[in-house]
């Protein structure tokens, strides 16, 4: 089955995953993490992309971002990826590719899924059993969004801003989102949408995206053509 083209929509949040080739490490030490974030900030500023949340895992990266135009995400990822690979190969005396082909991304329905994706991203180290709480992991946006420790890269989404009138209120309400485990259905929905390039949102949002882009936003119903009028007529014969 041919890969679906990635969808880009100005002003819409995107969940992005970039994986290391063959699931090999993309980061070896603190300097690598810092370099990646520095290159990402430069590229985000240049191509006018707001970064809302991120996590840098050992062999992959998650980013939640909103572009100003439909080229911003792809240009940012290309520019950042190219510079980081050059840095990484030179620093660690290696050659060849670092990333596993092209990155994956999905459009996110801000009204129903945005804060869920924030949480999904920043809880990655907890699910991987690297730390017991998101606040313990240094290479994510949690400390900025939940604790107010400034990360220059981060630009808050309007939905995050609505959590409170002051920074302290927003951080307090944000921390409440991290109580308990994420529902399995949310985990599955996010993973399927991002890995398969479907849209993450409710039916109305998906219909809007299909109308704007002319591309399917969700998989066909089980059975595909089995639901067609032709199939029903044949079945009745």
TrEMBL record:
Domain of life according to the entry: Bacteria
Occurrences of domain Transposase IS200-like (ranges): 9-124
Location of the region described as Disordered in the Swiss-Prot/TrEMBL record: 211-237
Pfam families: Y1_Tnp (PF01797)
Comp. bias (Basic and acidic residues): 223-237
Entry's Gene Ontology molecular function annotations: DNA binding; transposase activity
GO biological process, one term: DNA transposition
Name this polypeptide is given: Transposase and inactivated derivatives
Organism: Hahella chejuensis (strain KCTC 2396)
Phylogenetic lineage: Bacteria, Pseudomonadati, Pseudomonadota, Gammaproteobacteria, Oceanospirillales
């Amino acid at each position: 089955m041919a890969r679906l083209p990635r969808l880009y929509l100005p002003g819409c949040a995107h969940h992005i995953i970039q994986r290391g080739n063959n699931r090999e490490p993309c980061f070896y030490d603190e300097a690598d993490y810092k370099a990646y974030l520095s290159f990402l900030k430069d590229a985000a500023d240049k191509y006018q992309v707001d970064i809302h949340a991120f996590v840098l895992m050992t062999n992959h990266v998650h980013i939640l971002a909103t572009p100003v135009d439909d080229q911003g995400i792809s240009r940012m990822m290309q520019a950042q990826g190219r510079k980081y690979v050059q840095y990484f190969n030179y620093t660690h005396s290696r050659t060849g590719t670092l990333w596993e082909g092209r990155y994956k991304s999905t459009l996110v329905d801000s009204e129903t899924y945005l804060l869920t994706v924030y949480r999904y991203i920043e809880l990655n180290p907890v699910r991987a059993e690297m730390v017991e709480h998101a606040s313990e992991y240094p290479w994510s946006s949690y400390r900025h969004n939940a604790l107010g420790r400034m990360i220059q890269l981060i630009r808050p989404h309007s939905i995050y801003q609505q959590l409170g009138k002051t920074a302290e209120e927003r951080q307090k309400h944000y921390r409440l989102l991290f109580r308990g485990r994420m529902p399995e259905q949310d985990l599955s929905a996010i993973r399927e949408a991002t890995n398969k390039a479907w849209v993450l949102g409710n039916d109305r949002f998906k219909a809007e995206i299909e109308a704007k882009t002319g591309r399917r936003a969700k998989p066909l119903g089980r059975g595909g053509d089995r639901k067609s009028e032709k199939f029903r007529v044949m079945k009745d014969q």
